[in-house]
């Protein structure tokens, strides 16, 4: 379980303090108004923002660990692909910095590429790919890192509705297959209803309610949540 208790960071005049949890094999959708601290929460977990408090995975503290040593893969809206490397090289980079792979590593890439339907794209560069293709390639690289915590910060927001739905279903399948703890930051209530086991609603740098999507609809804990549901449902 990813366990967050009184995890605090300050940025300028703003203080962020989070309490919530996410189990292996579970998807938690992180919701809230723009600027409330959704991306900040993910950055604190990944180690990009220093924070105080309790942050642990399966009972082991992550505090003090550098970014590279945390059991975390992150995927952002920009997809984080290196433009000067082709898809194969981008994926290889997830397994070895020198891009020198053994047979077992090449087989891993082949299996993930087949799963995400990007085998025919391996020689292409990111600039030659569509948004959906870039998104699948970036997701493949995140999975190849084999980290049990997957942080998704609105990676599908630029996709058309059909690709968005396909991508969400794929994340749900991969979460179950690989037993990942997935945090999905989204502005779309429909995303939460489609694949999330729970939602964590953030308001002014705090998780004010964590529950199932159905419970949030029936029993919103604040007027802010009520307003959010009214305008986004």
Placed side by side, the strands forming the largest sheet appear as 6-7-8-3-9-10
Q: Output the radius of gyration.
A: 18 Å
Low-confidence stretches: none
Structural class: alpha/beta
Strand percentage: 25-35%
Number of helices: 8
* Highest CATH level, the class of the largest domain: Alpha Beta
- Give the number of DSSP strands: 10
CATH topology value of the largest domain: Rossmann fold
Gap from first CA to last CA: 30 Å
Task: Record keyword descriptors for this entry.
single chain; 233 residues; Rossmann fold; six-stranded mixed sheet; four-stranded antiparallel sheet; 8 helices
Task: Explain how this protein is built.
Helix content is 36%, strand content 26%. The chain is of the alpha/beta class and 233 residues long. The protein has two domains: 1-63 and 147-226, P-loop containing nucleotide triphosphate hydrolases (Rossmann fold, 3-Layer(aba) Sandwich); 83-146. The strands form two sheets. It has a six-stranded mixed beta sheet with strand order 6-7-8-3-9-10, sandwiched between helices. It has a four-stranded antiparallel beta sheet with strand order 2-1-4-5, with helices on one face. Helix 2 runs parallel beside helix 4 (131-144).
